[in-house]
Inverse folding.
């Protein structure tokens, strides 16, 4: 997939998730979440190249300055990742994010230990994390989990769970949603409804 086609895919994904989006041009020019993701992708490539770790970190810090979103270049992020609003999002070095994941503003995907190795969460495909939520440590959230706003998640959860509270407790969604079964007007899921 070329860089331009990946950018088009990101713009189309933003349009699907944000009912306020009016045009592709507006999304490309004004969505800080997309800018952070695009700069992350460059920094991540540098991070994987011998001798470019410091420039990768500098680029990620420049992206943080521009967007208010901090994504470590060592994180691994899948396709169609969307950060809505974005300000205050932090994604740690060993975080792994699957395809079709959405984060709202103020989300932290952080570590719980100071050691080396895997210390940040893994979010499988289709996870939605509400505003202000913290997902901490080497845990795994299964496909299509929804994390409620301001929840603090410190334990792994199976697919199709709803996680709310401090510390968050998992419960199954009322009816598991599969992407093929979701109507167009329900193509996003507002985690604020789980407060």
């Amino acid at each position: 997939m070329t860089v331009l086609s990946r950018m088009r895919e990101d713009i189309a994904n933003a349009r699907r998730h944000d009912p306020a989006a009016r045009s592709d041009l507006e999304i490309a020019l004004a969505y800080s979440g997309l800018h952070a993701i695009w700069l992350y992708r460059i920094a991540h490539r540098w991070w994987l190249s011998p001798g470019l770790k410091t420039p990768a970190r500098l680029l990620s810090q420049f992206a943080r300055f521009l967007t208010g979103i901090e994504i470590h270049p060592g994180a691994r992020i899948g396709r169609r990742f969307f950060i809505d609003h974005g300000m205050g999002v932090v994604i740690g070095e060993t975080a792994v994010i699957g395809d079709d994941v959405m984060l709202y503003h103020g989300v932290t995907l952080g570590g719980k230990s100071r050691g080396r190795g895997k210390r940040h969460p893994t979010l499988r495909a289709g996870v939605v994390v509400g505003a202000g939520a913290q997902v901490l440590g080497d845990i795994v959230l299964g496909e299509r989990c929804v994390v409620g706003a301001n929840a603090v998640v410190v334990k792994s959860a199976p697919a199709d769970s709803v996680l709310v509270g401090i510390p968050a407790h998992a419960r199954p969604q009322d009816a598991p949603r599969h992407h093929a079964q979701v109507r167009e007007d329900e193509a996003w899921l507002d985690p604020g409804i789980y407060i």
Summary: The CA atoms of residues 72 and 100 lie 19 Å apart.
